Amino acid sequence: NENLVVLGIETSCDDTAAAVVNSNGEILSQVISSQAELLARYGGVAPKMAEEAHALVIDQVVQEALDKANLTGKDLTAVAVTIGPGLSLCLRIGVQKARSVASSHNLPLVGVHHMEAHTLVARLVERELQFPFMALLVSGGHNLLILARDLGDYIQLGTTIDDAIGEAYDKTAKWLGLDLRRSGGPAVEELAQEGDAKSVKFKVPMKQHKDCNFSYAGLKTQVRLAIEAKRINAGISLASASDEERQARADIAASFQRVAVLHLEEKCERAIKWGLNIEPSINHLVVSGGVASNKYVRARLDEVVKRKGLKLVCPPPSLCTDNGVMVAWTGLEHFRLGRFDPPPPANEPEDAV
Ligand code: KG4
Ligand code: ZN
C-alpha cells in the first residue's frame, strides 16, 4: 500500500501558501500568508509588489508547512507547484522554491494548473467523488463550467466573456465603501444580509444566450450606476454612514448578490443538462474557487443540483479560496499516474526557471 506525501506550493495571486497532504487525503499541514493589508492599501493586486511580498515570505511559509507536518524534505515523495494561470512574476517565486526543494532532496516535481487544483481538491474532501462529474469554478479571475471526464480530461462547457463573478463582488465592495482589509466578497455577503434583495432592479445577464457562458461586466456597470444614483460616497466608511445610507448600501449589495447568483444558477442548470447528455453517469456538481465560500451561493446552487437529481460537493471555505492543499493534492493525483518531471539538477542557476 502506497503512502505518498506531497508538498504543494501556491503563489499565483496574492496569497503565499504551502501544505503537505498524503495519499489517504490527510492534510498534514496548511500555511497561508496573505497580502490582505497590501491589497487594502492599494485597492488591488500590483504584480511587482505581490512578487516582492511572495519572495519575502516563501521560505518561511514552506519551512512552516514542513515543521507543522513534523517532516523534513527527505520524507516527501514529490513537490507540486502551481505553474499557471496567474501573475507570471508571482508564479516564478513558487516555481523557483519548488525546484530548489526538489533538487536538494532529489524529488520529482509536478506542475499544477491552478483551476484543476480548485476542481480536484473536491476529491480530497469527498472521497466518493468519481469521474465523470460537473464543476463550476468561481473566483476572482475565472468563471468556468467544466465536465471532468477523467484526470486531465476536461471539457469546458462555459466561461466568462468578460469578468468573473469574484471581480464583480470585489468592485461592488470597493464602490460601496466596504472594508477591503479582507477581500471584497465576504464584505458584500455580510452586508447583503441586512438588505432587501428585490429593492434594486438589476437585469440578469445573457438571458437571451442559450449557452453556458457568463458575463459580469454589464452587471458591474449596473451596480456602479445604482451607486451613483443613490449618491453613495465610497469615501465614507460603512461604520460612519447614516442609518439611511447604510440601508441603501445593503439593498444594493443584496440585489447585486441575488442577480449575480441567479446568473450562476441559470447557466449551471443548462450545463448540467449538457453534461448529462455527454456523460449520463454524472452524479455530482463540484462548486469551488473563492466565491464558493459564500453561503448564499452554496445554498442556491444546492437547490439547482437537487432539482437535477445530483449531489453538490463544495469544499470548506479554507479549501475554496486559494490554498496549498489543493495544489499538493492535485500533484499527488498526477504523481500516482506517473505524470511528473524528474528532479531538477542541483545548483541550477536562478534564471533557468
Ligand atoms: O480562488 P480565489 O481565492 O483566488 C483566485 O484564484 O481568484 O478567489 C478570490 C475571489 C475574490 O474575488 C473574492 O472576493 C471572492 O473570491 N470571494 C468571495 C467570498 N470569499 C471570497 N466572493 C463572494 N463571497 C465570499 N464569501
Ligand atoms: Zn484561485
UniProtKB/TrEMBL annotation:
Cell compartment(s), UniProt: Mitochondrion
Cofactor binding mode and count: Binds 1 divalent metal cation per subunit.
Domain of life, source organism: Eukaryota
Domain Gcp-like: from-to ranges: 26-329
Coiled-coil spans in chain: none
Cofactor or coenzyme needed: a divalent metal cation
Annotated keywords: Acyltransferase, Metal-binding, Mitochondrion, Transferase, tRNA processing
Catalytic activity: L-threonylcarbamoyladenylate + adenosine(37) in tRNA = N(6)-L-threonylcarbamoyladenosine(37) in tRNA + AMP + H(+)
Keyword GTP-binding assigned: no
UniProt KW tRNA processing keyword: yes
Similarity-based family: Belongs to the KAE1 / TsaD family.
Described purpose of this protein according to its UniProt entry: Required for the formation of a threonylcarbamoyl group on adenosine at position 37 (t(6)A37) in mitochondrial tRNAs that read codons beginning with adenine. Probably involved in the transfer of the threonylcarbamoyl moiety of threonylcarbamoyl-AMP (TC-AMP) to the N6 group of A37. Involved in mitochondrial genome maintenance.
Quaternary structure, from the entry: Homodimer.
Name of this protein: Glycoprotease 1
Organism from which the protein derives: Solanum tuberosum
Name of the coding gene: GCP1
Full-protein positions shown: 69 to 421 of 469
